[in-house]
Specification:
The protein is mainly α. Among the domains are: 94 residues, no CATH class; 110 residues, no CATH class. 68% of the residues lie in helices and 1% in strands. It has a two-stranded antiparallel sheet with strand order 1-2. A hairpin with a 2-residue loop joins strand 1 and strand 2. Helix 12 runs parallel beside helix 14. It is globular and about 60 Å long. The termini are far apart. The relative contact order is 0.08.
């Protein structure tokens, strides 16, 4: 009897773990992105950092944190928590941040305040370097080799010769389709951003997929799935869609590109932006200005 009860308990525990794992994996990150935009405005506009810290803490319990370019929500949460004496999880959270900044480590290592923060909690630059090395060791080497070739193809001859450009783009389209179907989205967490001296911004390849109507419908549908899973930044998807709009001489869907000559209805564009987790046009400009100002002070 006791043996049967133990088996039932193990079975129920296994089911619970699988259920929790499924829930965590299946969360829609568009909700996450919109929540981050809301919290960021509390920090950036309302100037209420302690309120923002509380909301971020709650959000990061529910979602695996990201650290989006320019907003840098998880890093700002940690920095603000440290500044205001709030518990952010200490070393555990600092190590959790490393894979998120690791793609930019060749530049991030020059951030003295970042290194100083880690040292404050007993993590020196050698420890960070080791953690970055562990992150790199988990990358898919076969995928990296494939995309090093893809990015060389993408920029071959500076994309001047039309026939070469089209031939190379179509090869990359097939590589992306094969990768999606066999490995999922080739995010920076899978292949990094740099391989030696090769710069591999996936946004560039996606942008060029907008030029081919025989492939574009597939990518428009498929990449949206990766936006929802938190693997593809929504701005990369939006840029691809808006570029295709330009080809067809229709107004921007998301208004990614600077200038408003192709935005006919800003309220509609803002609704579209929110539907994939992007901030409003006005708030996008606020973030861009703050980012530009921060570069001037460095």
């Amino acid at each position: 009897m006791r043996h049967n009860q133990n088996i039932r308990c193990i079975h129920l525990s296994s089911l619970l773990i699988c259920f929790l794992f499924y829930c965590c994996k299946s969360r829609d990150y568009i909700t996450y992105y919109n929540k981050v935009n809301e919290i960021d405005s509390i920090y950036r506009v309302a100037k209420q950092p302690e309120k923002a810290i509380k909301k971020y803490k709650k959000l990061f319990r529910k979602y695996r944190p990201l650290n989006q370019e320019r907003i840098e929500e998880y890093e700002n949460y940690i920095r603000s928590s440290d500044k205001y004496g709030k518990n952010f999880g200490g070393q555990k959270s600092l190590y959790r941040l490393i894979p998120l900044i690791a793609p930019y480590w060749r530049y991030k290592k020059e951030d003295k305040e970042f290194i100083k923060l880690y040292k404050k909690y007993g993590i020196d630059s050698v420890n960070i370097e080791q953690a970055v090395a562990r992150w790199e060791s988990k990358h898919d080497k076969i995928l990296i080799d494939s995309f090093v070739i893809a990015f060389a193809r993408d920029q071959y001859g500076e994309r001047i010769n039309n026939s070469d450009r089209v031939e190379n783009d179509l090869k990359n389209a097939e590589l992306l389709k094969w990768t999606f179907e066999n490995h999922g989205y080739p995010s920076m967490q899978k292949i990094g951003l740099y391989h030696k001296d090769t710069f591999m911004p996936m946004s560039v390849l996606l942008l060029h997929m907008a030029d081919y109507d025989e492939y574009y419908p597939y990518f428009k549908t498929k990449i949206l799935e990766y936006v929802r899973s938190g693997e593809c930044p929504p701005v990369h998807y939006a840029a691809m869609v808006d570029r295709n709009n330009i080809h067809h001489k229709i107004p921007y869907t998301y208004g990614v590109y600077q200038g408003y000559q192709n935005i006919k209805d800003s309220a509609k564009v803002n609704r579209n932006r929110k539907s994939i987790g992007l901030p409003s046009l006005k708030y996008r400009n606020k973030i861009a200005k703050d980012f530009s100002d921060s570069l001037k002070t460095k």
